[in-house]
């Protein structure tokens, strides 16, 4: 965990899906007794298993305007939610990339006390399921389980932008001191 925290703090691109989203969050609720260690870095509060147990896993069409603007394609993405977390709160520096309507059995309170959304009839509750903060990308669903590669392309462009920024900052060095025989390789953690 210390190495992963350092990796995130250094500004490296990281994409957390499902459990990876939980690990990247600064705060997680709905955990087992004793909680779990977090990597942090993403200014949000996540509710672990927000959408319920394994048997309540589902697929849903998600509106993805940012992904469409950057990657093209249809206006929605088929999200695969497997015992998925939900993002309850985000800080001002966090960009919300996708939300969906919360099923009636879920809770949107940021404490561990459950509250039925049916009590709030008349106002449709949304839950955040994808965010970006700097070089951190997080999704509550599993894009890797679909044939739609737009999220992957979006993340690879984040990695490329980071590598270009890094090479621009090193271009201040005298050219004879900087000899690269090949493109730099980035070892990105998979979480």
UniProtKB/TrEMBL annotation:
Keyword tRNA-binding: no
Top-level division of the source organism's lineage: Eukaryota
UniProt source species: Erythranthe guttata
Regions crossing the membrane: none
Recorded GO MF terms: glutaminase activity
Annotated signal peptide: none
Identification of the protein by name: Glutaminase
Record-linked PROSITE patterns: PDXT_SNO_2 (PS51130)
Keywords for this protein: Glutamine amidotransferase
Region of interest (Disordered), ranges: 102-121
Biased composition annotated in UniProt, kind: Polar residues: 103-113
Listed PANTHER family: PYRIDOXAL 5'-PHOSPHATE SYNTHASE SUBUNIT SNO, PYRIDOXAL 5'-PHOSPHATE SYNTHASE SUBUNIT SNO1-RELATED
Alphabetical list of Pfam families matching this protein: SNO
Catalytic residues (UniProt): 18, 142, 144
Gene Ontology biological process terms from the UniProt entry: pyridoxal phosphate biosynthetic process; pyridoxine metabolic process
Listed GO CC annotations: cytosol; glutaminase complex
Entry coiled-coil feature ranges: none
Statement: the UniProt record of this protein carries the keyword Phosphoprotein: no
InterPro entries hit by this protein: Class_I_gatase-like (IPR029062), PdxT/SNO (IPR002161)
């Amino acid at each position: 965990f210390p190495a992963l925290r350092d990796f995130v703090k250094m500004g490296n691109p990281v994409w957390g899906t499902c459990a990876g989203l939980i690990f990247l969050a600064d705060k997680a609720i709905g955990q087992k007794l004793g909680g779990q260690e977090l990597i942090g870095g993403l200014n949000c509060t996540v509710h672990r298993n927000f959408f319920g147990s394994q048997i309540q896993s589902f697929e849903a069409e998600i509106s993805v305007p940012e992904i469409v603007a950057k990657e093209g394609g249809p206006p929605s993405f088929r999200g695969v939610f497997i015992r998925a977390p939900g993002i309850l709160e985000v800080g001002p520096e966090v960009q919300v990339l996708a939300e969906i309507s919360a099923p009636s059995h879920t809770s949107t309170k940021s404490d561990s006390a459950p509250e039925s959304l049916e009590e709030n009839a008349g106002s449709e509750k949304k839950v955040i399921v994808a965010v970006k903060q700097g070089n951190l990308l997080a999704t509550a669903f599993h894009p890797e389980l679909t044939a739609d590669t737009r999220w992957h392309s979006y993340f690879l462009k984040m990695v490329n932008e980071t590598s270009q920024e890094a090479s621009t900052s090193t271009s201040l060095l005298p050219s004879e001191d900087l000899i690269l025989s090949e493109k730099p390789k980035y070892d990105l953690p998979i979480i």
